[in-house]
Design brief:
This protein has about 240 residues and is an all-alpha fold. It has one domain. The protein has twelve helices and no strands. The longest helix has 25 residues. About 40% of the residues are buried.
């Protein structure tokens, strides 16, 4: 499996609101029958679960406006796949350091799982309540403090936690700005997998600035998002709120 190509397909389908393509990706990630296929599948089980989780997450976002029941199911499937991805990692004994590659996979899984739960709560208008979601993203930040996807989800969780507290929103906004710079640094380096999040970070920054009534800053952020992903429907929708 070419995971970079697969991630690209998931992201493009999300950017273009193509639920059919996302369901096609999920179908392609189903385990194949046969002993040889099972052996190959076992070797990449964690990675396969991660990208199934990402596809479910994107599917939920695409369906959230039109098919809320299906979107909520996709959120549940996302979290199940994240749990499977974490379970596939070697158990780390207390007091011992984890292998760097596995530490990265664990942090990425925790960040994606948190993103799924946050999306589900936003769809249901349920306020952030801490608990497991908070502990997972906090642990991810400890494992990979310079990972832009981890820091992006952490900033989104901060916005959720802030509620109507303006001071906390200011802190979250500052952190989200810093995240966009982390993505710029990451994009200047060698391509890695996963690598989603740069266009999303700018789009979320644009949305936050719209809420702050900073039209100029929002436009700049959204223009940057669309430079990275010109087909990004969510960023285009936000841009239309400024230009109409």
């Amino acid at each position: 499996m070419d995971w970079a190509d697969l991630e690209g397909r998931i992201q493009f389908a999300y950017y273009t609101n193509d639920s059919r393509a996302l369901n096609g990706v999920l179908a392609s990630l189903k385990p194949k029958a046969g002993a040889e296929a099972e052996e190959a599948g076992a070797a990449d089980a964690g990675t396969r679960s991660y990208f199934r989780a990402l596809a479910h997450y994107r599917l939920a976002q695409v369906l959230s406006a039109t098919k809320k029941g299906d979107a909520r199911k996709a959120i549940g499937d996302c979290n199940d796949e994240v749990d499977a991805a974490v379970k596939a990692l070697p158990v780390v004994r207390y007091g011992l350091d984890e292998e760097p590659a596995n530490r990265l996979k664990r942090a990425e899984a925790y960040a994606l799982g948190t993103a799924c739960t946050l999306a589900g709560r936003e769809m249901s208008s349920i306020p952030f309540g801490g608990g497991r979601i908070g502990s997972r993203i906090d642990e991810a930040a400890k494992l990979e403090p310079r990972n832009p996807r981890v820091r992006l989800v952490e900033a989104l969780a901060q916005f959720e936690r802030a509620g109507k507290n303006d001071d906390e929103k200011v802190v979250a906004l500052k952190n989200l700005r810093a995240v966009t710079q982390m993505f710029e640094q990451a994009r200047a380096q060698a391509t890695t997998t996963p690598e989603w999040g740069a266009a999303e970070a700018y789009a979320f920054l644009g949305r936050a600035l719209i809420d702050q009534r900073d039209a100029v800053g929002a436009r700049e952020a959204l223009e940057r998002s669309l430079l990275i992903a010109p087909e990004y429907a969510f960023a285009r929708k936000l841009m239309s709120q400024i230009t109409r």
